[in-house]
Amino acid sequence: MNTLPIPEPFSGGIFLSYRCTSACKHCMYACSPQWPADWISLEDAGLILAQLAKKMRGKYPRPGRVGVNEGIHFTGGEPFLNFDLLLQLTEMARRLGIPTTFVETNAFWCRDDEVTRERLTRLKDAGLDGILISANPFILEQIPFERTERAVRISREVFGDNAIVYQRFFYEQFRGLGLRGTLAFEDYLTRAGWGLQYVELFASGRVPYKLAALYAHYPASHFLGASCRRELIRDWHIHVDNYGNFIPGYCGGLSLGDARDLDAICRGINLDERPVLAALLTNLGELYRLGQQFGYQERDGYISKCHLCLDIRRHLARQGDFKELKPEAFYEHLA
Asked: Closest by alpha carbon to 238, among 56, 33, 66?
């Protein structure tokens, strides 16, 4: 059997669900309001967090310190759509001894000071170490900026230095522009589009389909020799979705197995049963040939190797049953 051992994860994110208040153009996981409210169960979360706690034990010299790629963060989708579940998972993580926990939010819910402070205080009292507030031109299309400002201000009161603004550049730019309410991306480009040189975008998820005009395009042959091995077996940041899929890095729609049995994944996954993964570990030329066997036709250019990989996987997910292309609904929410 052709197996691939997977390193024990050092840090990661737990999806409460793929459901979100927005369908942002840059979303790596194709989250949106159209996803069903399939929240992670407490039973599954307990199994997953217990295993992560064991594997993270002793690896953090400064427990409680929040960093983008440290500890466990609760994400999605938008976690605050189900505050009670978020609170329960926070308490569970504390009981299990997860060294660092924080939540990621778009701040849609920060409509007034009282509710914002009450919820953040309850989470801190339950054991949450910090928070990450998203700020960028794509969030700004949907979330009034005064809610983002409120989230940042009160989070700093509650969590101190463990309140992260991602990306801080855009937060300060929007404040400098005196923005209120929302702003369409096209209007942002007109008013302050030079700021995009600082944006951190991963050319996966919706980016190749919604923001391709921002990039140069290349033929498939430009990327066929590239391998995805490093992304697939990295340990420093993984994600587990609400269906139990172990997602390597930021590769939405790609599952290494069932995270409820994390030990089995770390011992090794069977590549004979996962032809897409086997191809990606070699080079994109192998994936391209696999796609052609199922009728894939080249597009008029790709912005990155991730774009080519994702587009082929999207085609394959519609043509056959590949156990590594999960959840299948991810591929239906990209465009």
From this structure: 56
Q: Among 34, 6, 41, 5, which residue's Cα sits nearest to residue 20?
A: 34
Q: What CA–CA distance (Å, rounded) separates 320 from 133? A: 38
CA distance 29 to 175: 28
Angstrom distance (rounded) from CA 284 to CA 228: 8
CA–CA dist 332, 24 (Å, integer): 15
Residue 254 near residue 281 (C-beta atoms within 8 A) = no
Helices 145-159 and 113-126, axial angle in degrees (round to 10): 40
What pLDDT digit, counting tens, does each position of 160-169 carry?
Answer: 999 999 999 9
Q: Which ranges of 12-142 would DSSP assign to H, the alpha helix?
A: 42-56, 83-96, 113-126, 137-140
Positive or negative torsion for Cα 53, 106, 187, 301: positive
- Write out pLDDT tens, residues 262-292: 999 999 999 999 999 999 999 999 999 999 9
Q: DSSP letters of 187-226?
A: HHHHHHGGGGGG----SSTTHHHHSGGGS--B-GGGTTT-
What pLDDT, in 10s, does the model give residues 228-255?
999 999 888 899 999 999 999 899 999 9
Q: 319 φ, ψ to 5°?
A: -105, -25
State the sign of the Cα–Cα–Cα–Cα dihedral 102, 127, 58, 259.
Answer: negative
- Note the helical H segments in the chain: 42-56, 83-96, 113-126, 137-140, 145-159, 168-176, 185-192, 207-210, 229-233, 262-267, 275-282, 284-293, 305-319
Question: Is pLDDT at 1 greater than 80 in this prediction?
Answer: no
CA angle in degrees (0–180, nearest 5) for 213-215-217: 95
Sequence-distant (6+) residues with CB within 8 A of 191 are 177, 183
pTM of the model: 0.96
